[in-house]
Amino acid sequence: MSVLSTDFWSTLPLATGVQLLARDANGLAAFDKPFGVLSHPNSSQDEPRSLLTCRYDKETQCFSWKAADGSDRQLWLLNRLDSATSGVILTAASEKLAIAIREHYLKKQVTKIYQALVFGKPHKDSESWYDQLAVKNIRGQLRTSLIGNVPAETRYRLIKHTQRNFSTSLIRLEPLTGRSHQLRVQCAKRHSPIIGDQTYGDFARNRSFAKATKNKRLFLHSLETSFTYEFAGRTCAFKATAPLPADFTATY
Fold this sequence. Notes:
Alpha-Beta Plaits, mainly beta
């Protein structure tokens, strides 16, 4: 049986809330990852709350499990989202395809669109952000600061500002570079911290917001990923969109 069959995709050991968004004939697929779900397990104890609830090999970046008929099945992870970030995440059903797509990512030919809910109202309706960041591993945790020599660029646009119990803005972010925590740090620098950001955000306002709304999530969502890639002698276009969660547009 081909791994690209309908049965393969319909019987994946997906975590609760994970939804298949799109797939193509080559085996490239996109899923909508909910807030709180890990992109992959860091140990066997994490498997129940990971994108796929099965074994994961960090070296090959591949999930593996047994099908109902006893056959071995695999799915390769192509990108990652922090557990606190929701939205589009990509996989490949073959190692050959995974290698091709990862090389495509390295060439920076992938368009990624995020939306975020931030505190306050940005000073401008749209602009390009340029920063020099430093990314460090501190006791096993990645931390990004604004004093460094790693370039980070993002296109920003204001979608909507709301002034009720809280002053909040829904914004669109298109990162042109892929630095760890880039969007979170760049928003915080411009006095528009992402709501629920427990590392770079406004801790006092986070507490007030969580108390009033009973919502503690990080309001950062990977909305859309699109690109054109070459595989098996053909040019293929791929696009996946994960619907914006309702809590992003609620009136607070």
